[in-house]
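Please check this protein record:
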Amino acid sequence: MTRTTTHSRRPGRDSARHAVEPAGASAALVNAWWASVLAGDLYEPHPVYGVLKAHLDGGRLRLMGEMETEADRDELVRQARERIGHGIDRVDVSRLRVASHKEKPGILHQTLVSAFPNRKAAEFASAFVLKHSRIAVEEHAIVDSTHADKLRNLLPEDFISDASKALDAGEALLILRVDETSAFRVRELLEEETRSEWTIAVPPQLTTRSGHDG
């Protein structure tokens, strides 16, 4: 049986060295995380790294996702291979990538809209995404039928009709505006981990600051 989980990146690292050389309490957290993974608990994020998926299939551990640096990838692979013989017999890292960093943050933002059966489900999804993505959200709102008038302040005109139909059907909308470089990560969480009815992405737009930068 194959088990899968999505983990999220932990920002705010002062340097690659801090990520590559966990020590003290961090080392203890890393060891505890690996112990839980090998025991089949695949739902907690790695305490240092992020946006990766772990498949545990018999004796094979497959790691997939995107790391910030080559050094981070090497360290994660080292951690995994240290566990060979302790619950796993091989590690597959063929789909563990290093981020290209071609996009520059702060230029574009993107609005993501997810529909949920009710407001409570949308609130739960919001809390989950904010915790596990660990990114700075530029705008955040939950809109239900009693606050439909807010849509025009949150979405472009072309998206108002579909959003209004969802509200008329009794659904609640989670609307998040994030930096365009983080949008894929957030959308992945919304689609794979929160059981949203659907998720759409508004085309990226220039941030206010960028629009004033000549």
